[in-house]
Write a structure and sequence with these properties.
With 192 residues, this protein is of the alpha/beta class. Helix content is 43%, strand content 18%.
Amino acid sequence: TTLTGANTQSSALFKRMKADFCASADSAMSSLMKLSDRSNEMTFVNIEGLQQIKAKVSAMISGAEKEILISGDFSLRLFTEEIKAAAKRKVRIIAFSFIDLGIDDLPVELHSPMHPDNPECMDRRIMIVADFSRSLIASSAGNPDWTGTFSENTLLAKIVSEHIHHDIYLLKLRQKHGDNLISRSMKLGSLM
C-alpha cells in the first residue's frame, strides 16, 4: 500500500506540474502575442549628421500618403521636389515656424509669425510627422552637427503632432488677441 500511495502522490504531483507548466506556457504565449501585435511599431532610431537627417526628412515626405506636419526652422526649400510631389499625391502639408521660411511658392499651409531668421541662433531644430504614424525630431542643439530620433511609435507621433498643433493654436490666439496672451502669472516657472 505504501508503494501505491507513493504512485498516487507522484501521479497527482505530475498532474499539478503539468497543469502549472501548461498555464505558464499559455501565459508566455499570450504575452508573446501581445508583443507581436506591436511589431509594426518600430523602436527608436538615433540619427547623427545633417545629411542623414535631410535624407530621413526627404524619405518621410516622399512616403507620406495623407498628411505631413512640420515644425522648426529647418529650410524646407531643401525638399522642394518632394513637397511638390507630395502635393500632387493630394498629401496635405502643414508647417509651423517662428521664422519666415520664404516658401510662399510651395504648396504648404504655413503658420508663422514671420520673424526674420536669426543666423546667430544656434539651436536649430525640426519636427516632422507623416500620416500620424512616423515621426522625426532633430536638432543641432548649439552643436555644429545634428542629432535626431526617428520612430514609427504611434505615441511619439501623437506627442509631436500635439506639439505642432498647439504651436499653431497659440499663434492663432496671439494673432487674434494680441502678443501678451500669456501673462507672467500664467507661466509655470518650470525648467523650460
